[in-house]
Amino acid sequence: MNVLVVEDEPKALSVVRAYLEREGHTVFEAMDGERALSLFGAFDIDFVVLDLMLPDRSGEEICLKIRSSSQVPIIMLTAKASEADRLNGLGSGADDYLVKPFSPRELVARVNAIMRRVRPLESAQTLRFSGGLSIHVAEQRVFLNEGLVSLTPAEYRILLALARRPFEAFTRDQLIVRAFGDSYDGYDRVVDVHIKNIRQKIEPNPRRPVYIQTVYGTGYRFEGEPS
Ligand code: CA
Distance, CA 70 to ligand 1 centroid (Å)? Predict the structure, then answer.
């Protein structure tokens, strides 16, 4: 999952980052509101952790701005603990809030709880689709009608990234970030080669794919029906 963490205290930022990365998330950091909004616009962000007190703009303002275009889950971090302040944070569209100082473990637990609610497939350990395709995340194994499918690590990561968000179109760049993180520095057409190989392995007829569709002018979309 791509998590945007907006926090102007470097120490708090690095602790939150470490805990989220340990859970396998890709973290994007912003230390002020402007940077937060520009990262949010440029990347495909799944979750926002937002400090209420920022040097340039208030967390509420950032929250409202994000909410004007997106339903992405948002957790607010606040040093303010009064009831009025909490209600204000939730009123600006946050899904939850944590009062500082908080335990990073609790933050991770809240992030996971919200994700299980809003995107069950994002956090599922086993993904099953009609046609007999299943992905077992803990073992990093893929089965087709009980038969093990032999995928390379890169193919597995791309398939998992697509399958966690069925029916959503992704550009090649978005897929690379989802599968390999934002530090990957490669040619985006390499995705096409991986997709071609994945289709050979999981599609009943790779020339007429049922799972991974090409979206002309954009990239790819996974169309397996969760079952
Ligand atoms: Ca702050």
Answer: 23
